[in-house]
Design a protein that fits this description.
Order of helices and strands: HHHHH
Shape: elongated
Strand content: under 5%
Low-confidence stretches: none
Structural class: mainly alpha
């Protein structure tokens, strides 16, 4: 069993992040009024500033972690899309589902909106992790390259 190829994890993570951010941007545009209404009800006004870039930066960390997870479980499940889907399902459950449950139960966002966002993100995350995993290769010598 070789070591995880850090460069390939980062490259795959960047691709996964791009795919998710495009999908999330589209979701945000489609449901902009719903999100704005929910925030307005809480007295929050979203204005573009440096802090609004934090979720994008964090998504890069999550994208890299997703491909790292794929690389970590690859020896057990084998390389390929089926293993990437497993990693994507775990990522989706640990991040998207838990976030949606928290936001809905705390009544920060309506449960309906969180259900839509959660359902939307499942294929988005799976496609992103499969695409990012397609870039991942272990070094033939079993060393990080």
């Amino acid at each position: 069993m070789g070591r995880i190829n850090g460069k390939r994890v980062v490259l795959g993570g960047i691709l996964a992040t791009l795919i998710v951010n495009v999908g999330e941007g589209l979701l945000g545009l489609l449901f902009k009024r719903d999100y704005e209404a929910a925030l307005r009800a809480l007295g929050i006004r979203m204005e573009p500033n440096l802090a609004t870039l934090l979720p994008i930066a964090w998504s890069l960390v999550v994208g890299i972690l997703a491909i790292w997870l794929y690389a970590a479980i690859r020896p057990r499940y084998g390389p390929g899309p089926r293993t990437a889907v497993r990693a994507g399902l775990a990522l989706w459950a640990f991040s998207t589902v838990t976030f949606a449950v928290a936001m809905a139960s705390l009544r920060i966002f309506p449960a309906r909106l969180m259900a839509i966002a959660t359902a939307w993100s499942l294929p988005e995350v799976l496609v992103a992790v499969v695409a990012g995993a397609a870039i991942y290769r272990e070094d033939s010598r079993g060393e990080v390259s």
